[in-house]
Amino acid sequence: MRRGMHHIGLATTDYEATVDFYTKVIGWEIAWQDLMKTPDDTVLVRHVFFDTGDGSYVAFMAPTPALPGTPASWATDINSGLGVPPHVYHFAFWLDTMEELEQLQGQIRERGATA
């Protein structure tokens, strides 16, 4: 029996920018996408799962204005939304060596990441 984490779910206010970042900068592939709709086909939430490469996923939900109770904007970085220091909430990449980490960091920076 397999054990471990299947996915972590996060929120985004900009679905397209999120997909662009995780596919073009990070280099993950989309495992699947779906739409959560009402019976009359009104889209409430756009949902995407990115394959992290080890059998686990990072998922994002992007509520639309049609979803009741959705604010117009919010801090999606978790840290500022909760008022805690930067980098407290984060996820990290699993690599075997420091050299692999440095290589990945360089690739991600070449693709446009600034942090």
List the uncertain runs.
none
Shape: globular
Terminal Cα separation, in Å? Answer: 38 Å
Q: What portion of residues is helical?
A: 10-25%
* Helical stretch tally: 3
Largest sheet: 4 strands, mixed
Summing up helix and strand content along with how strands pair, one would put the structural category as: alpha+beta
Q: How many beta strands in the DSSP annotation?
A: 4
Note the run of SSEs as H and E: EHEEEHH
Strands side by side in the biggest sheet: 1-4-3-2
Average pLDDT, to the nearest integer? 92
Amount of beta strand: 25-35%
Radius of gyration: 16 Å
Please explain how this structure is put together.
The structure is a single chain. This protein is an alpha+beta fold and 115 residues long. 24% of the residues lie in helices and 26% in strands. The protein has helices at residues 15-25, 79-82, 98-110; strands at residues 7-11, 29-37, 43-51, 57-63. It has a four-stranded mixed sheet with strand order 1-4-3-2, with helices on one face. A hairpin with a 5-residue loop joins strand 2 and strand 3 (43-51). The longest helix has 13 residues, at 98-110. It is globular, with a radius of gyration of 16 Å. The termini are far apart. The model has no long low-confidence stretch (mean pLDDT 92).
